[in-house]
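Quick note —
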Amino acid sequence: MLYGKLDLVFYDEDLKKVSIWDIKTSTRGWGKWDKEDKIKMAQMVLYKKYFAEQYNIPVEEIDCKYFIVKRKIPKNPKYPASASRIQYYVPSSGKTTMNRVTRDLHAFIDDCFKDDTYNMKEYTKTPSDKACKWCPFNDKPELCDKKATN
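Predicted structure written out below.
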């Protein structure tokens, strides 16, 4: 069972289309790295897939997009669009992407759970400023060896 909370779901009666929006906040908006983050993009693809299955709607009749709210905007922007607090991003969510994301999700579940029991296998990630920026153990040297590797 997969549990998720959708921020906004719209239905356009004229076009017979469902639109799923996920609201994100960002300091200055999304750049190239955010848009290429496969895990971040997988969220909307899975919302689209399972929403279609749950409500028996053809997946082709569902669109999805990220609604990004910027916390800061430049005082003298170089481009007018960067002066807006709102940014939209439509992730790739076609058949190929949906198949890849679904395969990755199932591989993750199979790796983490064996016979309905949580697999206690230890996962490690190479510490780095980018990887550890939001980690709750970042400032707890007794729980994280980031300081030892820098």
